[in-house]
Amino acid sequence: MKRAMIVGGGKGGTALLGKLNGLDYMEVVGLADLNPEAEGMRIAQAHGLKTSRNAFTLYEELLPAPDIVFEATGDDSALTELQRHIGVQTAVVPAHVCHLLYQLLVGKDELITELSHQERLHYTVFQSTHDGMIAIDNNGKVLLFNQAAARMTEINREEAIGHLIHSVMPESKLPRILKTRTMESNQKQTFANGRQIVTTRIPLWINDNFVGALAVFQDVTDMVDMATKVTDLESVQQLLQAIIHSSDEAISVVNEDGQGLMINPAYSRLTGLNEQDVIGKPATADISEGESMHMRALHTRMPIRGTQMKVGPHKKDVIVNVAPLLVNGELKGSVGILHDVSEIRALTKELEKAKQRIRRLEAKYSFDDIIGSSPALAFAKEQAFKSAQTPVDVLLRGQSGTGKELFAHAIHNESGRRYHPFIRVNCSALSPALLESELFGYEEGAFTGAKRGGKRGLFEEAHDGSIFLDEIGEVPKETQVKLLRVLQEKEIVRVGGTTSIAVNVRIIAATNIHIEEAIRRGDFREDLFYRLNKMPIFIPSLQDRRGDIHELCHYLLHKINQTYGRSVLTITDQAMQQLLAYEWPGNVRELENILGRAVIHMNYPEQELTAEHLPPLSSEDRTYKPSLHEYGKQSGSLAERMAAYEQKELKAALAEHRGNKTAAARALGISVRNLYYKLEKHGIV
């Protein structure tokens, strides 16, 4: 049974909940709506379902995860967020599809009423026919035994139904159909009472599920009448056409040779092609760019999902799902469903433009976006989470590509400043003169080209919020003095100005350089370092948390799939072993680039990333190996010698375990927390 969750407790979600409840193949396990008084919320609570105002919180609480999420609000942004955050193992159904499903369920109720009438009619016909009919289930138990069969076999109908066919009619050949599942036509047989009949035995299927067998038989004298009874295939075809034509999804059907058989009006509206352009033509007739998924499905006999292509004279962007049509194992053709994505893509581009315009004023990530559960990363996240609860300035340290910016976003979003600006500054991307005017602003006439009226600096823009100073180690010493004033006095002076301006800003700085070495070289002010270093957080490299690579790969693949419109779902064990064996000097950023490059070079229908898809990964050993002159003082006080020896042992342990801090701490007999403390104490990054 499929587990389902509904997002939206309004009219549409409530109606859908009412129709889904009671289905024996689907169970609604939760409903989310921003309005706790929504009608759907009250009904869901009355039925004992889990409810929440936050769809993502509810999704996390529903374990195991729902198989299907019905987005019933009709809000495109809500649908986009659901598709972005919900795992690839869960299908997200848009509001327009929910509406279609509701209509189908309503139609189902009407159909059930009609079928009840039809069933009574069929029962009357079944009992009135001169043909004998016996049906058994897949266990051999008699389900149907009409009056004609009772008359021909001289077996009481009530004594037959519900009993095994062999106990009722030992001479019956129907159990053979349960094994072969193939039809036997016009077979001669003699009953126990001596009556000779001609029978046709038929396997029974419902939605590709084998459910039993049926025997239809007559006296030999009635053979002439049997020839006049044929299956009304035309009515079946008309029913199928009516169903397909009523769908709002664009549908095309081809035969086993790839020739067009049927299209519906929705297909014509989407592609601009009519029946004359498609029916009887090759499956490639509607394709502007790409290969025929119909032909691939016919060749492989496997369904193909999520393939992008352009169709029709206007080169309409669509996503295509195609499945082969197999009847009793015999290929009869294939059916394709096309989804229009051009409008969604245009809206997505507009959304991205809007995000770019406001990206300097908001933090996008939370601690949930920092993927991994290794001890080293868990320790860093714990430190960051605690620092977010206080107004203390933070210094993020770690190699390039480890996710320092994600930590900065998460700290801001977890703090009391979350509803105020979050300003990001890459200190290494700006020249010294430009950096100072950008950070602190300038007065009118401060320099040639200065705007009339002056300009507010980024510290003023970040008032009451946070400012993220990335690559703080690249800031010129002249600007470092002004940064120190901001940290100490909480005020700035614009370039060319004399008036102090108070600012209430939390500084989150980040660096990937050995800042203690920069202090020794005189490139970084020691007093500024100690002001920033109140709350240092060391973000581990990917080498130090290899256990997170598997989880990171699947998270990044989901992200890459959304970016490039792919459907890569898994990574083979061999490919994963190659990724685990690599040193990752570029850390998580390099891992994302490697996976992105591999996915780009994969064929669209492929869903499994193998070792052959990966670009060559260098096996060069990049482990840091300290030399003798780095081991510290050979003379001095006992405290200095002990510190030098401790520093030497720490470096040696890290080198021996290839930079793995968890393994190094275990070898030294200390906790990981204590190791990080000692590394910070000795300036070892």
TrEMBL record:
Name under which the protein is recorded: Sigma 54-interacting transcriptional regulator
Domain PAS: 118-173, 236-287
UniProt keyword list: ATP-binding, Nucleotide-binding, Transcription, Transcription regulation
Gene Ontology terms for molecular function: ATP binding; sequence-specific DNA binding
PROSITE patterns: PAS, SIGMA54_INTERACT_1, SIGMA54_INTERACT_3, SIGMA54_INTERACT_4
UniProt cross-references to Gene3D superfamilies, sorted A to Z: 1.10.8.60, Homeodomain-like, NAD(P)-binding Rossmann-like Domain, P-loop containing nucleotide triphosphate hydrolases, PAS domain
Keyword check for Transcription regulation: yes
Domain Sigma-54 factor interaction: 370-600
PANTHER family: SIGMA L-DEPENDENT TRANSCRIPTIONAL REGULATOR YQIR-RELATED, TRANSCRIPTIONAL REGULATORY PROTEIN
A Gene Ontology biological process term: regulation of DNA-templated transcription
